Amino acid sequence: MPPSESDLEHPAFARIPPWVQQKLSAKAVETIKKVHHWMETEVIPAEPILKAQISQPEKRWKTPPIMKELREKAKKEGLFNLFLPKSFGDLSPGLTNLEYSCCAEIMGKVYWGAMTMNCHAPDTGNMELMAKYCNEEQKEKWLMPVLRGEKFSAYSMTEPDRATSDATNINCRITRDPKDPNWLVINGRKFYGNCIWGEDLGFYILMACSDPENPNPWKRHTTVIVPKDTPGLKMVRNLTVMGYDWAPEGHGEYLYTNARIPAENIILGEGRAFEIAQGRLGPGRIHHCMRLLGQTERAYELALIRATDQRKKPRGKLIGEFDSNIERLASMRLQLDSMRLVVMNAADTMDLKGNKAGRYAIAQSKILVPQACADIIDECMQMHGGAGVTQLYPLPEMWTYARFVRLADGPDAAHRHQVGRDELKKAGKVKEQHDAYQRRYKELCQKWGVDEETFL
């Protein structure tokens, strides 16, 4: 039964297109309303409090008290783990990817808003991965603490010494301990993955090479769970992104030196890392894009406020009274609404046909959204003048996150390349179609007594 008109008058649905509104279940409508209320009353007003708490050097890498309080409250209010799709059975809250996209955009208004609901990266992708591929013992030991919000997890795939946008180049090695095959030994370097300093971080999900001589490059790698306190695992340094350390989760550079883990920590089986990675990265890429839309909507809201600020009148006019800014605001509005359609189409395609079939729509989102969001936020900063690039506004951090997502879960250049290759595969059928036009044209020339001309 579609939602009623009165249900959809709520501000949470102001930007959701009608074709999406009609696909929302009653449960989804109520959940979207709750997420909206949560963000408006609990998260956005608390943003300066969290920043103040993590600004204290001795508490920089500890989960802020306000975050712990919000996570406990969100769990009690039924706002935890909303991202898990229906296919995960009892673990899922029952939302489709399309329904969750409406929630995720609202969460994205604050970078850490999704974390209050246990819907943040990389834990969303890791939880989906573990729910889908781990055995029952692994789920109980590793998945359930993350689902309950007791621990955070990290994902470790990128390497500084290899072009790992082509993941077949991943070189960090996993070998069986020759003295005890029930143990694995890991050696290599990794980039990214949450900082080991985070007090609530529990483990890393690591993708590494276990069979380098396998003739099939897609069968050479294995995915394992590495506890953060594993001997031989060392974080070399925190990796800043555009100067931000992104505490308290952050990113790190890691060195594995004869790090030993039990073989029971292998997920799904040896040589099956690529199967796992594809199952993880599809939804993760969409989640980033969903949250980016919410973040960019907030940047746009700030631009609207700036455009109508009575205190700011260069040459006696409001910023929003200049034609260039009126057109700028219109262009940003159109871009935002267009991107939302792209992302929601990807989410709906995943619901209807599965993640694999939705690959093209997912790639569309990953290519278009981060770049466009960065451009829009840049324009919003410009409208704020010099203050727009300072800590007085969240805009610089918003822009940095959007810029980072062009690389996260695979650089957009790789996705463009994939889309382009897929399009070129269609050229043969397109040529046949145009040859048919040519033949039919010649038939029509004969029928109507028209001289044939070049027809391309």
Automatic annotation (TrEMBL):
One of its GO terms (molecular function) is acyl-CoA dehydrogenase activity. One of its GO terms (biological process) is fatty acid beta-oxidation using acyl-CoA dehydrogenase. InterPro entries: Acyl-CoA_dehydrogenase, Acyl-CoA_Oxase/DH_mid-dom, Acyl-CoA_Oxase/DH_mid-dom_sf, AcylCo_DH-like_C, AcylCo_DH/oxidase_C, AcylCoA_DH/ox_N, AcylCoA_DH/ox_N_sf, AcylCoA_DH/oxidase_NM_dom_sf. Residues 154-248 form the Acyl-CoA oxidase/dehydrogenase middle domain. It comes from the Eukaryota. Belongs to the acyl-CoA dehydrogenase family. This is Uncharacterized protein. It comes from Saxophila tyrrhenica.
